[in-house]
Amino acid sequence: MQDKCGVIGLKVDSGEAALQIYYGLYALQHRGQAGAGIVSYDGFKQHTKKGLGLVGEVFQQDDMEELRGSSAIGHVRYPTSGSINEKTVHPFNVNTRQGFLALGHNGNLVNADSVREKLEGIGHVFTTETDTEVLVHELARNLIDHELVDAIGMTMNEIDGAYSMTMIYNGEVVAVRDPRGIRPLCIGKLAGGYMAASESVAVDVLGGEFIRDVEPGELVILKEDELESHKLVEAYAAHCFFEYIYFARPDSCLDGRSVYGVRRRLGELLYENHGARTDLVSPVPDSGRAFAAGYAEAGNVEYIESMMKNRYVGRTFIMPSQAKRERAVRLKLNPIEPNINGKKVTIIDDSIVRGTTSKQLIDTLRENGADEVHVRIGSPPIISPCNLGINMASRDELMASEKTVEDIREAIGADSLEFLTVEEISEVLDIPLEDLCTGCVTGNYPVS
Ligand code: AMP
Questions:
Q1: Ligand 1 pocket check: which of 353, 359, 412 to mutate, most ligand atoms within 8 Å of Cβ?
Q2: Choosing a second label site near 173 at 20 to 30 A (CA), which of 55, 194, 196, 415?
Q3: What is the CATH number of domain 261-430?
Q4: CA distance 152 to 280
């Protein structure tokens, strides 16, 4: 199962940790809309509330009174290719002989099957198909004979893949990032405590001060008055470049870079190296907006919105059939006819996955009188699914998996189509290609 999720954890001296987690989860809602959960610890007991749906749907005011304690973690879950049920909503919690353990995970383990088989062989019983349940069992097993930090270290040496996670163990709040730092995770300082979260926007909404990112392979114990850091495994960075392109919120900072700033600069490069001379440039809202702003600035091209997004339509990407997805794009994006009629238009988006959005948009723009429609994309063609925590599509659904750029242009009906290259992305991020995970666009993954 693959998840693009959001995690958060905090330790404060006020005893109202869960309420802060609740607000923090709102800031991370874009990372998962299928389920949400909070676990708190009050010094004696662990309290849990989880459910399917958005943060605002899962938690009621009464829950915050139940979720007592000065330690808490939370999670928002993104749907996988299969269905999601209550049992698969994080945090996962278990009561062990040594105490209470709860864990929320963003990412995807690549060796969960073999670890699960090993654990089943010694009597562990699983209730879901998730890799996170395997991770929790492995950790709980290591906790039988070892202290928390050692047990986490042993677990990190056992599991492989992407994992940014927050956990509570008998009230200790811990943040851990995998040795490649594939998914993001950062630390903030709050009044009376510390927090960790997938993205810095969660620190912002809590009025905290951003401290730094959790380093690849680092374990951080959050205390009321200090951070305790441990490096337990050898690290070799392979940050997911797609976080910058699409997943993270533009107002976040990832590994020291403003996501908005990166997208805007990528937009400039799209013009400088791949520009089309048209009357105007328009973003696909909202994913193409920062790219289009950079493109317009670099080319001195008029920036104008040529379509509006209906915010009340859910994500079209996860609709189960292609026909429904196409209908949903129409529902979601409606053209502003006077802005495009008789015009040569450049449309900018961050990515093409199945090609549904671009094709529908181009058809609609032409029906509304656009003379020419040129498409520029702020990432390379996606040719391969992600096994490290992002729900993309299967290989045969990916438009670029078998098609050349010219084939894609024809299929979506654009007058011209160009993509950025991985080299251009590496240049803008100022991160060497070998320190990035580019598996979805190159087929070369940092894990086997
Ligand atoms: P598609 O219509 O299938 O080509 O998908 C492209 C659109 O989906 C773009 O507007 C992206 O912003 C967005 N997108 C890209 N990756 C994902 C993802 N993994 N989940 C949801 N939406 C995505």
A1: 353
A2: 55
A3: 3.40.50.2020
A4: 54
Residue 103 corresponds to which tokens in the numbers above?
Answer: 């864990």
3-state helix vs strand vs coil in the chain, percent to 5: 35, 25, 40
Q: Which residues, including other chains, have CB under 8 Å from residue 429's CB and lie 6 or more apart? A: 241, 244, 257, 262, 436
Prior bond to 381 cis, omega within 30? no
Domain spanning 3-237: which CATH class is it, in words?
alpha beta
How far from the centroid of its chain's Cα atoms is residue 360's Cα? 25
The pLDDT tens digits of the residues spanning 90-121 come to 999 999 888 999 999 999 999 999 999 999 99
The pTM of the whole model exceeds 0.85: yes
Q: Please report, for the chain, the start and end positions of each structural domain, with discontinuous segments joined by +.
A: 3-237, 261-430
Decide whether any atom of ligand 1 lies within 6 Å of the 317 Cβ: yes
CB within 8 Å of 445: residues ≥ 6 apart: 387, 388, 437, 439
**Residues 252-308 pLDDT 10s:** 999 999 999 999 999 999 999 999 999 999 999 999 999 999 999 999 999 999 999
Query: Which amino acids are annotated catalytic?
Result: 5
Residue 230 pairs in a beta bridge with 219
With the most atoms of ligand 1 within 8 angstroms of its CB, the residue from 282, 317, 326, 356 to mutate is 317
Closest ligand 1 atom to 355 CA: 4
